[in-house]
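In this supplementary section we document a worked example of the pipeline. Step one takes a protein sequence of length 315 as its only input; no multiple sequence alignment statistics are reported here. Step two produces a three-dimensional model, which step three serialises into C-alpha cells for compact storage. The input and output of this example are shown verbatim.
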Amino acid sequence: MDNYIVKRISCIVLSLLLTAALVLSIFGITGIALFRSTSFIVSKSSQYSDAIAKSINSEIEQQMPVSKLTLQDCKAAIDGGVCDYIVSVTAKNIAHKNANDFSLDTALYNKIYANLTSAAKGKDISISADEIGDIASLEVDVINSVMAQMDTNNIAYISLFYSKFAGAAVLVSVALVIAAIFLLDFVNSGRHRKNSYIGMSFASAGAIDIFASLAILRFGTGLQFSQNEVLSSIVADALQTVLKLQIPCGAALVLVGYLVLFFNYRYFSKKNVKVREQREVNAKMREDYMRHYEQKNAPRPEPKLGEREEHLIDF
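The serialised model returned by step three reads:
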C-alpha cells in the first residue's frame, strides 16, 4: 500500500514538473527565436516610422536656421528612404542591445545630402556644397538627438532573451520535459497508465499558455518599457506578438494532450472489454464444469418403502 502511494505521488510531482517545463520551454523558444531575429524587430519598428519621422520633423522646425532652402525642403529630405534606414539601424540596435547613436553615421549623412542637393537642383536654387553639407550635418545632429532618447541598450526583458540565462533555461526545460516523460514511463513500468499523466500535463500546459497569454494581453496593455513612447510601443508590440504566438502553441499542446488521453482511454476500454469477455467465458466454463460434476457425483436416491432393491453381483 505504501509503495502504491509513493508511486502515485511521484507521478503527480513528475506531471507537474512536465507541465511547468513545457510552458517555460515554449515561451522561451518563441521569445528567443523572435527577439534574436533582426528582421522581426525591423518589421515591428517599421510600423512606427511615421511617428519617428514626425518627431524628427518637429525638432527640425525648431532648430533649422534660415537658408536658401526652405523649411519644407529640409523636412522633405527626411524621406521614406531615410526613415527606413533610421528604423533599420534602430531595430538592429534593439536586437543587439547597442546604443542608438547616429552622430557619426556617414551613410545617413550621404542620404540626406543627396536629397537636399536634389531639392536644390529641382528648384534651381543657387547654393554651395558647403551650405548643403552644413544643413545635412545639422539634420543628422537633430536625428541623433531624437533617436538617442530611445534607450535601445537597456530594455529589461529583451536583454533577458539575449542573456545566457535564457538559453540555459530553455535547454534545462527541454531536458526536464524529456526526463519527466522517461521517469513517468519508469515509475509506471512502461504501462499505459503513464499516458494519463503525460496527456494531462500537455493539456494543462497548453491551457496555461492560452489563458495566461490572454490575461496578459488583456490586463497588461498599459505597461511601459521605456520613457520614449515610440520605443515603448515598438517593444510592447513585439512582446504582444510573442504572447499571441503562445495561443496557437498552447492549442497544439492541448490537442496533443487530448489525443494522448483519447488513445489511452481507447486502449483501456478495449482492454476492459477483453477482460469482461474473458471473465464471462471463465464463468460459463466454471458453471458447465460444476453442473457436470454435480450430475456425475450426485448420490443415489433412497429406495421407496416396499420397493424391491436389487444388487448386481459380479462373480
